[in-house]
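User: Earlier you gave me the apo prediction for this protein. Now I'd like the version with NAP bound, so I can compare the two side by side. Same sequence as before, with the ligand SMILES added.
Assistant: Got it. Here's the input I'm using:
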Amino acid sequence: MSLPDSSARWLVTGAAGQLGRSLLAIAADRGIEAVGCTHAELDVADPAAVRAALDRIEPGVVLNAAAFTQVDLCEQETEAALRVNAHAPGVLAEACRDRGQPTLLVHVSTEYVFSGETPRPIPEDADTAPLSAYGRGKLAGEQAVRDSGAEHLIARTQWLFGPGPNFVRTILAAAGRGQALRVVEDQIGRPTWSRSLAEGLVSAVRGGLRGTLHLACEGVCSWYDLAREIVREGAARGLTGTVGVDPIPTREMPRPAVRPAYAVLALDRSRAAGIHMPHWRDALAAYLDEERSARGG
Ligand SMILES: NC(=O)c1ccc[n+]([C@@H]2O[C@H](COP(=O)([O-])OP(=O)(O)OC[C@H]3O[C@@H](n4cnc5c(N)ncnc54)[C@H](OP(=O)(O)O)[C@@H]3O)[C@@H](O)[C@H]2O)c1
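And here is the structure of the complex with NAP:
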């Protein structure tokens, strides 16, 4: 089957989420015709609804930004999480595969498919070993896409911040209340702006990449490093006050879902493909500038 051309229409699922919103904004900038479907408009786990949407919208690219992303809740609401994270990617992939015209599925996954036990960046073909229900569900979703025979790109990313609830907004709000912060210093990753991810995904699709791809901002830090930077840069923009941030080990903040400790995605494949992601500090600064503008600052 031939490839969708660069003028192909995109369908973005989970369109009200962080990545969904960023993708629709980037698509408009890049001259891509993109149709967004929110959860209320399209339940990606419903095969009949998915097939009807594909028939109606006739996309060349389906970008699945829908997911159950509340990692701790996944431990409790296992069935609901699996429906979206494990089952729905297969539903989308089979619907794309069965269409009469080339339809690429771009599916977004996570560093939680890895255990993060080794302090080295993780390449795409590393062994997976999820530690949580969220990670197991997302891994099953990846596998369903691979097994479907659909033309696909699975993009794993991590530590997203964008237009929605996220760690940056949580820290800004807590610091704004004058609350001293205790933040884990022994989980390491790559904070990634959803806008940068959206730009990277457009480049990856236009570059014809297929298979599995790691896509995240450059640079590596702990949640503690990130929190300090958010407070410093947020205060400099009048978005929050200045508060102390103390480092703590993960064992002092137990959560229902076990997090990978060193889940740094290796970026060699995306770099070699010419996809240049910004450093997380630059992405964070640009994001905070946007947050200030949105608040009329
Ligand atoms: N956030 C992160 O730090 C992070 C890190 C690594 C990877 N990822 C992956 O990146 C992708 C995008 O994440 P995000 O942060 O943009 O997520 P998000 O902001 O939580 O957005 C997810 C969207 O999916 C929608 N959704 C949930 N169930 C659905 C269903 N059955 N049908 C259609 N839509 C449904 C949600 O709608 P409702 O809220 O109305 O249910 C929400 O709008 C996901 O695949 C996620 O696993 C995220």
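For your comparison, keep in mind: The radius of gyration is 19 Å.
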